[in-house]
Design a protein that fits this description.
By secondary structure, the chain is mostly beta strands. It contains two helices and 17 strands. A hairpin with a 4-residue loop joins β3 and β4. It is globular, with a radius of gyration of 20 Å. It starts with a strand and ends in a 9-residue tail after the last strand. The relative contact order is 0.13. The N terminus is likely disordered.
Length: about 220
Protein backbone atom coordinates (compact mmCIF):
# COMPACT_ATOMS: atom_id res chain seq x y z
CA UNK A 1 0.00 0.00 0.00
CA UNK A 2 1.07 3.57 -0.53
CA UNK A 3 0.93 6.34 1.98
CA UNK A 4 -1.12 9.45 1.36
CA UNK A 5 2.05 11.43 2.07
CA UNK A 6 4.08 12.62 -0.90
CA UNK A 7 7.34 14.35 -1.66
CA UNK A 8 7.63 17.34 -3.98
CA UNK A 9 10.54 16.64 -6.29
CA UNK A 10 10.31 19.72 -8.50
CA UNK A 11 8.42 22.76 -7.26
CA UNK A 12 8.09 24.20 -10.79
CA UNK A 13 6.63 21.06 -12.35
CA UNK A 14 4.88 19.93 -9.19
CA UNK A 15 5.85 16.31 -9.69
CA UNK A 16 5.07 14.18 -6.63
CA UNK A 17 6.18 10.68 -5.81
CA UNK A 18 4.20 8.62 -3.29
CA UNK A 19 6.02 7.26 -0.26
CA UNK A 20 5.66 3.74 1.10
CA UNK A 21 3.74 3.34 4.33
CA UNK A 22 5.87 3.66 7.42
CA UNK A 23 5.41 3.78 11.17
CA UNK A 24 7.33 5.34 14.05
CA UNK A 25 8.51 2.99 16.78
CA UNK A 26 8.58 4.22 20.37
CA UNK A 27 11.77 3.87 22.37
CA UNK A 28 10.04 1.36 24.62
CA UNK A 29 6.51 0.30 25.49
CA UNK A 30 7.12 -1.90 28.53
CA UNK A 31 9.91 -3.66 30.40
CA UNK A 32 10.04 -6.44 27.82
CA UNK A 33 11.49 -3.90 25.36
CA UNK A 34 14.38 -3.47 27.80
CA UNK A 35 15.49 -7.12 27.72
CA UNK A 36 13.41 -8.03 30.76
CA UNK A 37 12.92 -6.56 34.21
CA UNK A 38 16.12 -8.13 35.54
CA UNK A 39 18.14 -5.93 33.18
CA UNK A 40 16.15 -2.71 33.11
CA UNK A 41 12.78 -1.04 32.89
CA UNK A 42 10.91 1.23 30.50
CA UNK A 43 10.77 4.80 31.76
CA UNK A 44 7.58 6.14 30.18
CA UNK A 45 8.47 9.71 31.15
CA UNK A 46 11.42 9.78 28.76
CA UNK A 47 10.31 6.94 26.47
CA UNK A 48 13.57 5.07 26.95
CA UNK A 49 15.01 2.10 28.79
CA UNK A 50 16.81 2.68 32.07
CA UNK A 51 19.26 -0.10 32.80
CA UNK A 52 20.09 -1.62 36.16
CA UNK A 53 23.70 -1.58 37.30
CA UNK A 54 25.78 -4.00 35.27
CA UNK A 55 23.75 -3.63 32.06
CA UNK A 56 23.83 -1.07 29.26
CA UNK A 57 22.67 -0.36 25.73
CA UNK A 58 19.54 1.28 24.34
CA UNK A 59 17.67 -1.95 25.19
CA UNK A 60 19.83 -2.95 28.21
CA UNK A 61 20.92 -5.80 25.97
CA UNK A 62 24.59 -5.69 26.98
CA UNK A 63 26.19 -7.02 30.11
CA UNK A 64 28.89 -4.55 31.11
CA UNK A 65 31.29 -7.31 32.17
CA UNK A 66 31.23 -8.62 28.59
CA UNK A 67 32.13 -5.31 26.92
CA UNK A 68 35.69 -5.29 25.59
CA UNK A 69 38.04 -3.48 27.95
CA UNK A 70 40.74 -2.64 25.38
CA UNK A 71 40.65 -1.93 21.66
CA UNK A 72 43.74 -2.17 19.49
CA UNK A 73 44.46 -1.51 15.84
CA UNK A 74 44.20 -4.62 13.72
CA UNK A 75 47.79 -5.34 12.70
CA UNK A 76 46.60 -6.29 9.22
CA UNK A 77 45.95 -2.61 8.61
CA UNK A 78 47.74 0.70 8.99
CA UNK A 79 47.57 2.93 12.07
CA UNK A 80 45.35 5.98 12.48
CA UNK A 81 47.33 9.03 11.41
CA UNK A 82 46.09 12.49 10.49
CA UNK A 83 47.52 15.62 12.09
CA UNK A 84 49.39 13.27 14.44
CA UNK A 85 49.89 9.60 15.21
CA UNK A 86 47.10 8.16 17.28
CA UNK A 87 47.52 5.54 19.98
CA UNK A 88 47.47 1.94 18.83
CA UNK A 89 45.33 0.85 21.79
CA UNK A 90 42.46 2.47 23.71
CA UNK A 91 40.98 1.60 27.10
CA UNK A 92 37.34 1.46 28.16
CA UNK A 93 36.29 4.62 30.02
CA UNK A 94 35.00 3.87 33.52
CA UNK A 95 34.61 5.86 36.71
CA UNK A 96 36.57 5.35 39.93
CA UNK A 97 34.21 2.52 40.92
CA UNK A 98 34.68 0.70 37.63
CA UNK A 99 31.24 1.68 36.35
CA UNK A 100 30.86 2.13 32.61
CA UNK A 101 30.64 5.70 31.29
CA UNK A 102 28.38 6.00 28.25
CA UNK A 103 27.24 8.45 25.58
CA UNK A 104 24.20 7.59 23.46
CA UNK A 105 23.97 4.17 25.20
CA UNK A 106 27.44 3.20 24.03
CA UNK A 107 30.79 3.02 25.83
CA UNK A 108 33.73 5.33 25.22
CA UNK A 109 37.39 4.44 24.76
CA UNK A 110 40.33 6.68 25.57
CA UNK A 111 44.10 7.03 25.68
CA UNK A 112 45.84 9.59 27.87
CA UNK A 113 49.42 10.76 27.52
CA UNK A 114 51.44 13.96 27.82
CA UNK A 115 49.60 15.51 24.87
CA UNK A 116 46.15 15.05 26.39
CA UNK A 117 43.23 12.67 25.95
CA UNK A 118 42.40 10.81 22.76
CA UNK A 119 38.76 9.79 22.68
CA UNK A 120 36.76 7.30 20.62
CA UNK A 121 33.03 7.93 21.06
CA UNK A 122 29.72 7.25 19.38
CA UNK A 123 28.33 10.53 18.14
CA UNK A 124 24.74 9.59 17.47
CA UNK A 125 25.21 8.46 13.86
CA UNK A 126 28.86 7.54 13.50
CA UNK A 127 31.81 6.80 15.75
CA UNK A 128 34.39 9.57 15.95
CA UNK A 129 38.03 9.67 16.99
CA UNK A 130 39.55 12.88 18.34
CA UNK A 131 42.82 13.89 19.97
CA UNK A 132 41.30 16.76 21.93
CA UNK A 133 38.41 17.52 24.26
CA UNK A 134 38.36 21.15 23.13
CA UNK A 135 34.84 22.40 22.58
CA UNK A 136 33.01 20.61 25.39
CA UNK A 137 31.22 23.46 27.22
CA UNK A 138 32.13 23.73 30.86
CA UNK A 139 34.89 21.13 30.79
CA UNK A 140 37.82 22.56 32.78
CA UNK A 141 39.91 19.48 33.50
CA UNK A 142 41.05 17.96 30.19
CA UNK A 143 42.08 14.63 31.68
CA UNK A 144 40.49 11.21 31.90
CA UNK A 145 39.26 12.00 35.42
CA UNK A 146 37.87 15.36 34.35
CA UNK A 147 36.06 13.79 31.40
CA UNK A 148 34.50 11.10 33.60
CA UNK A 149 33.26 13.68 36.09
CA UNK A 150 31.90 15.80 33.25
CA UNK A 151 30.01 12.98 31.53
CA UNK A 152 28.57 11.49 34.71
CA UNK A 153 26.90 14.77 35.63
CA UNK A 154 23.41 15.56 34.39
CA UNK A 155 24.57 17.54 31.38
CA UNK A 156 22.00 18.21 28.67
CA UNK A 157 23.86 18.79 25.43
CA UNK A 158 24.63 17.20 22.10
CA UNK A 159 28.00 15.58 22.66
CA UNK A 160 28.97 15.42 18.98
CA UNK A 161 27.98 19.02 18.35
CA UNK A 162 30.70 20.42 20.58
CA UNK A 163 33.80 18.35 19.85
CA UNK A 164 35.92 20.48 17.53
CA UNK A 165 38.84 18.30 16.49
CA UNK A 166 37.40 14.99 15.32
CA UNK A 167 39.81 13.65 12.71
CA UNK A 168 38.29 10.25 11.90
CA UNK A 169 34.70 9.16 11.36
CA UNK A 170 33.31 5.67 10.88
CA UNK A 171 30.67 4.62 8.41
CA UNK A 172 27.11 5.34 9.61
CA UNK A 173 25.93 2.99 12.34
CA UNK A 174 22.17 2.65 12.12
CA UNK A 175 20.01 0.83 14.63
CA UNK A 176 19.63 -2.88 13.78
CA UNK A 177 22.12 -2.58 10.90
CA UNK A 178 25.00 -5.07 10.52
CA UNK A 179 27.34 -2.33 11.80
CA UNK A 180 25.28 -1.71 14.95
CA UNK A 181 27.74 -3.29 17.37
CA UNK A 182 28.00 -1.97 20.90
CA UNK A 183 31.68 -1.26 20.26
CA UNK A 184 33.37 0.12 17.11
CA UNK A 185 35.01 -3.03 15.75
CA UNK A 186 35.13 -4.11 12.11
CA UNK A 187 34.00 -0.70 10.85
CA UNK A 188 35.29 1.24 7.85
CA UNK A 189 36.78 4.66 8.63
CA UNK A 190 37.57 7.90 6.85
CA UNK A 191 40.10 10.59 7.75
CA UNK A 192 38.61 14.07 7.91
CA UNK A 193 40.63 16.73 6.13
CA UNK A 194 39.63 20.06 7.64
CA UNK A 195 36.70 20.92 9.92
CA UNK A 196 34.60 17.78 10.36
CA UNK A 197 31.48 19.95 10.90
CA UNK A 198 31.83 21.26 7.34
CA UNK A 199 29.78 18.83 5.26
CA UNK A 200 31.70 19.86 2.14
CA UNK A 201 35.06 18.87 3.54
CA UNK A 202 37.17 16.15 2.01
CA UNK A 203 37.10 12.65 3.49
CA UNK A 204 39.80 10.11 2.75
CA UNK A 205 38.95 6.44 3.18
CA UNK A 206 41.56 4.54 5.16
CA UNK A 207 42.19 0.86 5.78
CA UNK A 208 42.56 1.11 9.57
CA UNK A 209 40.29 -0.91 11.87
CA UNK A 210 39.82 -1.43 15.58
CA UNK A 211 39.55 -4.87 17.13
CA UNK A 212 39.07 -6.18 20.66
CA UNK A 213 42.49 -6.81 22.16
CA UNK A 214 41.12 -9.32 24.66
CA UNK A 215 40.41 -12.83 23.46
CA UNK A 216 37.99 -14.82 25.61
CA UNK A 217 34.61 -16.51 25.41
CA UNK A 218 32.66 -13.39 26.38
CA UNK A 219 34.11 -10.20 24.90
CA UNK A 220 35.85 -11.64 21.85
CA UNK A 221 35.19 -15.37 21.25
Amino acid sequence: AESTLSVVVDQHIGTRYPMLDFSLVLGCLDDSDCSGEERGFCNANVDACECHDGYSGDRCQNKDDDICMTLSIDEQFSSFRNSRDYATSLNLLTDSNGKLVQVYHRPLYYHQDDTGVQLLAYMGYRWGLTHSLIGLPGLKNHTKEGLVQYLTQEVDFQFAKHLEQVEFMSVPVLYDSPEANQIPVKLAWSAILGDFKDRTNEKLSIDSEWMCAICDDNTNP
